[in-house]
Amino acid sequence: xxxxxxxxxxxxxxxxxxxARFTVTVRSSCDxxxxxxxxxxxxxxDAVDILWGVVRSIPANATVLLRRxxxxxxxxxxxxxxxxxxxxxxxxxxxxxxxxxxxxxxxxLGEAGTLVGLNMPGPGAPPQR
Length: 129
Known about the structure:
Layout lengths: L1 E4 L10 E13 L2 E10 L6 H11 L5 E6 L17 H8 L4 E6 L2 H10 L14
Helix pairs in contact: 1-2
């Protein structure tokens, strides 16, 4: 899952602009399904409501991989925030699930996809449908 925000997730002014979720459901060793969901949000949409919607969409005992985007040090809030990160919120709201936050750039994701046999588009490639 990737949650794109206008500012770092601990900044109270931050809004969720985009959310992408790739779900793999393993029903048996020979039965696997995939789902890709992408949502764009209005800056006025409440981030907590969006995160609760995410929580409701995740089955119990699922493992959630949350891609964290690097934060420019100049964008970090000056004061310590009491607001949890998105990963902390999801871990708190999903106590029976495993939430793993990680950082990776586009190049690293492309390499990982290639290593597991996915046909990864290169820079400038047309969108795949």
